[in-house]
Amino acid sequence: MPYSKSVEQAVRRPTPVGSTTKAAPSVGITVYGCEHDEARLFEEMALELGVAVIVTAATVSTSNAALAAGNRCISIGHKAPVSNPTLEALSRAGVEYISTRSIGRNHLDVEYARRLGISVGNVSYSPDSVADYAVMLMLMSVRDAKSVIRRTDVSDYRLSEVRGRELRDMTVGVVGTGRIGTAVMNRLRGFGSRILAYDTRPTVGIDYVDLDELVQQSDILTLHTPLDAGTHHLLDRERICRMKRGAYIVNTGRGSLIDTEALVSALERGDLGGAALDVVEGEEGIFYADCRTRPLGRTLLSRLQRMPNVIVSPHTAYYTDHALRDTVENSIVNCLRFERDHRG
């Protein structure tokens, strides 16, 4: 399948099932924001599942919404927000279903889409990708890995003044016990950590406490809950101030789960031991871009990055080959399910 770098280059590829020649499939999907490795997988999965696809590297916008004409279903990435005018343009093009290749749906207005007659579905993928990464960030935080690596990069091989800590001696508070949160807890059991959890719908056999108690008892707080109106700034200034002195925060969920200004203030005061953030408020337009020649100024992100006890990575916890295959396959399956349920 040709990988299209622009709308003009986008190509419709009918994909017959099996080795014999058949008519073009009746189900079509337009795939926006598709990277090279995703394009290869979409070709492979389309052949297996019997769909026709249009693939473009461009993120969905008002200027390319017409590329979806003739297809009721589209697949989009999570790296760029989808504006309401874009949703309107998609509706005019006949789109009735959007499958976002992410767990979160906060990059578009789901309710506005619904009012336009467009359903929005997310995908599941291997929870191990994010769970592995979250535990890695915990270990890097409690062993002061950022400072160690920075020193050795300039040939300073002295040990840190402060010794690291072992996970078996720490209480880890897990906020959100869905597939990813549960996978994190499974890993932590191997380290011998004491595990506490908070969720509005407890489901697994673990010690659940209310959020304020979790915040007060945790040496490490790791966030794995979806972002919505009820969880925006779930970790607000008051809760951050209640945390143990020297505690760590790990966030591989969504940046706005944390009041970032309050977090920066607590870190600058020395109240917290550190933070490891794979997601940050205001990351849009910065993460996934080369900003080496683009001054960020004294933003909260730049203040975080200057701190020796803060690790920032560009929303990459999900970024594994296994998770990519799951994401592509489930995005196609979501579209096929919608078509099956809305025949006629």
From TrEMBL:
<keyword id="KW-0560">Oxidoreductase</keyword>
<dbReference type="InterPro" id="IPR029752">
    <property type="entry name" value="D-isomer_DH_CS1"/>
</dbReference>
<protein>
    <submittedName>
        <fullName>D-isomer specific 2-hydroxyacid dehydrogenase family protein</fullName>
    </submittedName>
</protein>
<dbReference type="InterPro" id="IPR058205">
    <property type="entry name" value="D-LDH-like"/>
</dbReference>
<dbReference type="InterPro" id="IPR036291">
    <property type="entry name" value="NAD(P)-bd_dom_sf"/>
</dbReference>
<feature type="region of interest" description="Disordered">
    <location>
        <begin position="1"/>
        <end position="21"/>
    </location>
</feature>
<dbReference type="InterPro" id="IPR029753">
    <property type="entry name" value="D-isomer_DH_CS"/>
</dbReference>
<feature type="domain" description="D-isomer specific 2-hydroxyacid dehydrogenase NAD-binding">
    <location>
        <begin position="135"/>
        <end position="317"/>
    </location>
</feature>
<dbReference type="Pfam" id="PF00389">
    <property type="entry name" value="2-Hacid_dh"/>
</dbReference>
<keyword id="KW-0520">NAD</keyword>
<dbReference type="InterPro" id="IPR006139">
    <property type="entry name" value="D-isomer_2_OHA_DH_cat_dom"/>
</dbReference>
<dbReference type="Pfam" id="PF02826">
    <property type="entry name" value="2-Hacid_dh_C"/>
</dbReference>
<feature type="domain" description="D-isomer specific 2-hydroxyacid dehydrogenase catalytic">
    <location>
        <begin position="42"/>
        <end position="340"/>
    </location>
</feature>
<dbReference type="InterPro" id="IPR006140">
    <property type="entry name" value="D-isomer_DH_NAD-bd"/>
</dbReference>
<comment type="similarity">
    <text>Belongs to the D-isomer specific 2-hydroxyacid dehydrogenase family.</text>
</comment>
